[in-house]
Design brief:
37% of the residues lie in helices and 15% in strands. By secondary structure, the protein is α/β, with parallel strands linked by helices.
Length: 222
């Protein structure tokens, strides 16, 4: 299934990709696209963490969701979908929310992909990754936006117009953690300030693709 990818990057690089061990935290709007792109790009060993269930409101943006799996665990749905793409993948699922209390569950991975919306969990994962020499990339806010061209792959200290990024910078600064952390975020301002988050498929899909690209490109550069 990877003949065309081999023609693009070479068989040696595909072997590198297959040998990487990835943790994906969150398989929602952003994380679902991360997972889809990684598996279609040759990732063979991945563990996914999410304790949420498919809901009706997910149908407008989450690639793993459809009318038939509403109410099911996201990690189970995601695993079934990925097995239909590549039945040989080594995929482990954890119906678990990563927090500061269990962040050491992420030990032993080459990459942590943070696709959660919990700022405290994000900070805990970044701190853990830094302390344990694990590479990490984090997704920031994509809600309340429509324009996918505003999504950027950059470093946390280069972000603006993102309230989540501001909170993370403040919390990480208090921990004396450097802000040279790769992130994807929307550089434009939110369209509204409603308490209820509005969303579309466009920004989270692009953010997920960017995150997967970052990991794949980093693997083959080594």
């Amino acid at each position: 299934m990877f003949d065309r990818l081999i023609n693009l990057i070479g068989e040696d690089n595909l072997i590198k990709i297959k040998n990487a061990n990835i943790a994906l935290v969150g398989v929602g709007g952003v994380g679902g696209f991360v997972l889809e792109a990684l598996i279609r790009s040759g990732i063979n060993k991945i563990t996914i963490y999410d304790n949420d269930y498919i809901s009706l409101s997910n149908l407008n943006r989450q690639i793993i969701s459809n009318i038939d799996n509403i109410g099911q665990e996201k990690v189970n749905v995601a695993k079934k979908r990925m097995r239909k793409i590549n039945p040989d993948i080594k995929i482990k699922i954890c119906n678990t929310k990563i927090t500061s209390n269990n962040v050491n569950d992420l030990n032993g991975f080459n990459y942590i992909i943070d696709a959660t919306d919990d700022v405290l969990a994000k900070v805990a994962m970044i701190k853990y990754a830094k302390d344990n020499n694990i590479k990490i990339i984090s997704a920031l806010g994509t809600g309340k936006r429509l324009d996918p061209t505003s999504i950027e792959l950059t470093m946390l200290d280069k972000t603006y117009n993102d309230p989540l990024a501001k909170k993370m910078r403040n919390l990480l600064g208090k921990e004396n953690i450097k802000l040279n952390i790769p992130v994807v975020y929307a550089s434009n301002k939110p369209l509204n300030n409603d308490v209820i988050i509005s969303s579309s498929i466009f920004p989270p899909a692009v953010a997920g693709i960017y995150m997967a690209y970052y990991v794949i490109n980093d693997i083959i550069k080594e």
